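Weekly modeling sync, notes
Attendees: S.R. (lead), two postdocs, one rotation student

Agenda item 3: backlog of single-chain predictions. S.R. asked that every request posted to the team notebook include the full sequence so nobody has to chase files. The rotation student volunteered to paste the first one in as an example of the format we agreed on. Action items at the bottom.

Example entry:
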Amino acid sequence: MARTEPSAGLRDLPSVDEVMRAQAAALAIDRFGRQAALSAVRGALAEARKNGAKIAAFGADHFAAAALSRLDADAAPRLKPVFNLTGTVLHTNLGRAPLAEAAVAAASRAMREYVALEFDLDAGRRGERDDHLRALLRELAGAEDATVVNNNAAAVLLVLNTFAKGRESIV
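Predicted structure, as returned to the notebook:
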């Protein structure tokens, strides 16, 4: 089988190894890891091959920067803030109700470090996660007791367990 020569412009493309040694590739590795950076570099070079000699004159720095730019774009948040001008206060298509700044700050603090979620610091043993909210929820709802679950399925199971105890239930 006869071997065909690549077009003159494609011969000038840098190798994956050359691109991976560029400054922008080092930044990509630091931010996204070696595998993601390598994949993005290969993608940038593949795009150049697909477009032919039109962009083959660019060097390793160009392709490393293109790879880093692609990784940054892929990592950018997809959810964008909008104004709710629908007339519906809690519009399900617009996410959830905005939280108070104090709640956002408290959640942010709790997410930055370990917290004693299920550990009773006074007793030095395992505690209950409900202890943090039980009194507040009881006061808010005027209930004898309260619990917190993290999804609707858990809530349905608890309700069925309570109201259908010892009986059959159609779900």
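Discussion: group reviewed the output briefly. The two ends are 66 Å apart (CA to CA).
Action items: rotation student to repeat for the remaining queue; S.R. to check formatting next week.
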